[in-house]
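Task card 7
Instruction: Convert sequence to structure tokens.
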Amino acid sequence: MSLSEILGFVERFLSRSPSDLRRTVYEGVRRAYERGDLAMLYHYVSMLSTDYYGVDLPYSFDYYYKSYPEAPRVKLPKPLERAGVDVLECIRSRRSRRRYSGKPLGLVEVSTLLYHTVGVTGRAWWGGPKRVYPSAGALQPVEAYLASSRVEGLEPGLYHYNPGEHSLELLSKGDYGGELQRIALDQEHVGRAPANIILTIVYRRTASKYGLRAYRYAHLDVGFAAQNIYLVAEALNLATVAVGAFYDRELCNLLKVDCEEEIPTLIFPVGWRA
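Output:
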């Protein structure tokens, strides 16, 4: 596509947009050009001000978490309710840890990590699930997947965590540690870990209410869930680190998701500390 075609497309798009959005886009383009940073464009169109409240987006909202009804299921054991470690101590001692022992993880550790990352703790007055992480508008965009390599009692494979059932849904069999390592720019700790938790966001859930502001909120949500992984790993004497560098389309292909509909955000290799 030539530059003139791109500019023509932008002009046609803006001609159908409200005047306050056009003004904000022009300001964002100007600042992006001045700073040499295209992210400035989204930074400006997602700002709120007294005379600009963003615009609606054409998204609907109809479910709080994904499910794969035809997938074989593994019912997870009850997660641990206590770890005997003070939460303030966990916050102080939390570190990014990239070395793991050769010991496999157990299903109880996997269960506890997944539940305290995105699990369901009850039902709200309107019927929607309450979750362990705070979420803008209670729209809960975060999904969790598990790539199991060495977990006792669990076949190696790629799984989706179903928080409503507290179960794992098998998407495909096999050890994907090496493939994840390659996708994560060949970071060795990804391939060495006995398991990897992958967090994504289903953008339309948040965008159905918050329009152009939603991209900010959804990434904040996944940050809250990610901190849960760190703190639970610390409490259980496990090692983990947040990995944000990966080939997006290849990770989407591995998960068999649409990269626009469901956005991969972080990979967490997890194992016992070396």
